[in-house]
Amino acid sequence: MNKILLIIQREYLTRVRKKSFWIASIVVPFLIAGVYAILIYLVVNSNETKTIQIIDESGLFKGKIESEKDVSYSFINKSFETAKKDFFKSDADILVNIPKDILSNPNGVKMVGKKSIGMGTQFDIQGSIEKELRNIKLKNANIDLKILEDNKVNVNAETFTLQEDGQEQSSSSTGAMILAGIFGMVLYISAFLYGSQVMNGVIEEKSNRIIEVMISSVRPFQLMMGKIVGVGLVGITQFLLWGILTFTASTATSALMSNKIEQKVQTMQKTGLNKTEIENFKKEIKDKNPLAGIAQTVENVSLGKLILCFLLFYIGGYLLYASLFAAVGSAVENALEAQQFLLPVTIPILASFFIGQAIIQDPDSKLAFWASMFPLTSPIDMMVRLPFGVPNWQIALSFTLLVLGFLGTTWLAGKVYRVGILMYGKKPSWKEISKWVFYKG
Amino acid sequence: MSNILEAQHVVKRYSEHTALDKVSIEVPQGSIFGLLGPNGAGKTSLIRIINQITAPDEGIIILNGERLQPKHIEDIGYLPEERGLYKKMKVGEQLLYLAQLKGMKKAEALEKLKHWFIKFDIKDWWDKNVEDLSKGMQQKTQFIATIVHEPKLIILDEPFSGFDPINANLLKDEILELKQRGTTIIFSTHRMESVEELCDNIALINKSKVVLHGGKKEVKNRFKDNSYTVQFIGDLPHESGIFEVLNTQALEDGIIQAYIRNTQEIPVNQLISHLIQHVELKSFNENIPSFNEIFIKVVGGEANEIL
Fold first, then answer.
1. ipTM above 0.90, yes or no
2. How many Cα atoms are found within 13 Å in the side-chain-facing hemisphere of A245?
3. Residues forming beta bridges with residue B60, ordered by sequence position
4. CATH 3.40.190.10 placement within chain A
5. Which single residue of A80, A151, A170, B96 has CA 20 to 30 Å from A203?
6. In percent, how much of chain B has pLDDT > 70?
7. Out of 3.40.190.10, 3.80.10.10, 3.30.365.10, 3.30.565.10, which CATH number does the structure's domain A49-143 have?
8. pTM of the complete model beyond 0.80
9. A-side interface with B, Cβ within 8 Å?
10. Mutate to test the interface with A, among B54, B63, B153 (most CBs of A within 10 A)
């Protein structure tokens, strides 16, 4: 068997066989599913309908304030003092007193609760009163409510990007933003997670002192590339497992929670809520599914193109950064020493992540363009731009630059690696490392 | 006897120093070759060049009549001074991996490994993790890794360092057995007693240069100083015009031991006849320098000059 294949095989199998690999592969999806379950639980349970008693001294509101999803109103004819005395015997949660002079004194509303009143409930009640109060004031000012209603125009523009062939393509930017965020995160996490695994692997070989036996059998470059590719395959395996398990676990969670959701929908129907509110509630739950974002999006960029670009930039970016991590690993003897040399490697990763967030806000800025061309930032930043639609020539140029970039870094890393792995005993300086590049292999 | 390995005018420079300065050595086929020298002399640099870990700046290496090239990796077995194993791997799996990297087929490697595991009586180690092995056990494992692919040339860098006496003896026996089967062994060391015992040829490297090179006997003869150890009864004059007494020591039963130098370099028989004119001779031995003495003389002498 080819030696580099043997190395890839060993690097892959030793990592995949570790318990920690399986723990991480299983725990993460269950954590995601767990968070999802908690979110559903909160939506179903926390928004219990509060019963609210209103004493309307002004007489302006009776019949005007309607119950909503989370609050149910009833009007009582008692003085505030008596009502307060009876309050604890009643099944109401909150007692509201609207003063006689509410029109001139909107701050005179008083609320008492059996427990402290939540902000959400407070705003719901205040909102209902404010809305009605405004109507009354408008009426008093002789403004016809109907005219006002008619003047309420809702502009909901659909956005399109115009293609050169004159076709209009709908660009759903929320979906794109979600997808861009996911791409950015995956690449960002991979660069750190698997890059440092490569580095630790190199350090391990060096501190175990097996390195010299190894490179008397294979070329240092073969060993380095075998390790980089092997760890890369571990990464792909892990992401596949995460994807599959997250999908399975989230689907299972929504199946398990469906009873609860159904119950909630029924109680909502009983309390006489209208259909849109129930639909909204159902949508809210659906949106909390971690995979919903991806499924909803990809409308303006074809899925195939996205996946292809993702793979190309993922692999290119990984090779570029992993080789730099390998070079750092070869120059030091333990992870602690590596910190000093890691800075120039981690700064571009961090930078491209932050630039990526700016790109989501403005995908066509100059910054976005240059960041998606420069090989150290393009893997993350091009992927962030991609869901917003990027011309093909830019993708091609960026990828070409990335390929040149990783050929450059692997060449450079190979040179440093070759010398670094045999250096023991002293921590090299930057100057020394730069000299290694010119040693004759 | 042909040479399995020749280094011709090899130069290796690092930024601040020259590690090898026009180093030339010849290693005869089937011999045990001692590469000697103090720490930092350049032994490991030369070994790394032979193993193609680094390349020389000048000069060439000839292996088996051909210029050194990547395919030769499989002909060499190398036990570095800084040696280790993957700690988290199983012994058998690891040896199989290393053997395959040396170009062996899996089935073939398995076969050969079985042979060594039986020979060293370590069959139950196969599934043990390397980190659970004692140091001596790890050394055996490393040795098997070095020789399992039956290389023509074995290079051992300070092989005895860290070995307990039992394992050191085992290693010595294995080295001799390999030699009998026609394998050439280069070992680098600064332990002269093992050189004395095992080597047929040596090269002494000091400060990046070969300062001594040749067969064991030849080198020793070069360092003979015409001195003899004699034991006798009687009185030996200090100066005779033919020999000079360097020191004397009284032994038991009136026997005296003396170191004498044959100042006129006359034939040994004549020297003996001179001696028996003065004393009753009990024993007569030519002083042959040990490698330890030669080493100290060559390396230490220079060191003293500097001081």
1. no
2. 18
3. B8
4. 49-143
5. B96
6. 97
7. 3.40.190.10
8. no
9. 1, 3, 6-7, 10, 14, 204-205, 208-220, 422, 424, 432, 435, 439-441
10. B54
